[in-house]
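Sample 3 of the quickstart, ligand S-adenosylmethionine:
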Amino acid sequence: MQIKVKPHPDFAEIFQVVLEDGAKRLATKNFALGRNVYGERLLRVGGVEYRVWDAFRSKLAGAILKGLKTVPFAAGHRVLYLGAASGTTPSHISDIVGEEGQVYCVEFAQRSLRDLVTNVVAYRTNMSPFLADARMPQKYSMFISGKMDELYCDIAQPEQAKVLADNADVFLKEGGWVLLAVKSQSIDVSKAPAEVYQMEAKVLKNRGFHVVQVVDLEPYDIAHAMIVAQR
Ligand SMILES: C[S@@+](CC[C@H](N)C(=O)[O-])C[C@H]1O[C@@H](n2cnc3c(N)ncnc32)[C@H](O)[C@@H]1O
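Result:
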């Protein structure tokens, strides 16, 4: 069977792939030709290179497959990414925002940031790395001018929603979107995950966000959800 690629019916710059064995995957167009980031497969179809987007490695891909209704990232957008690690999901957002966009990546683990810089940012002019603690946006605000179209937060820490809202106060444009990957066990192991998701959603509501969706990420990530909100 031949590999088939078609644009996602709802989201620009995201593609649906059917592989040789009939398996269905998501993909993005590779901004850094010939290079993969986390061992993902590269596909060349119709003269275009795509990167297969693994939903078991990227919570954003998992959320899309689990019925995320809003993917606000688009060509030319500026995105602040908190908890960039070594670049798995940030690299796919870099593919989506393309040449005219920019992904500002905040990560406080030196080793992860080094891998991000060496393996990913070096080949992608639309990514800017910051070795910084997302709990202190004032420490990196002087390096980032202008407002962001979206914020993405995946820091697997207590007070995830608060950290996101604090950054939104500084960086998010009016009407901008945020996506928060919640790891319930980082917040309260004694509570049911669904209860923790609601607690984090409430923090965002109290900070002026309109929460539009909470997507449970199982089976891709156990006890994780993606909260989508707009302000
Ligand atoms: C689950 S991983 C992120 C995975 C990444 N978002 C992806 O999908 O490719 C969480 C990352 O957040 C980072 N992190 C946690 N707390 C942070 C903080 N306060 N400031 C910056 N980075 C933080 C960790 O070092 C870790 O690399």
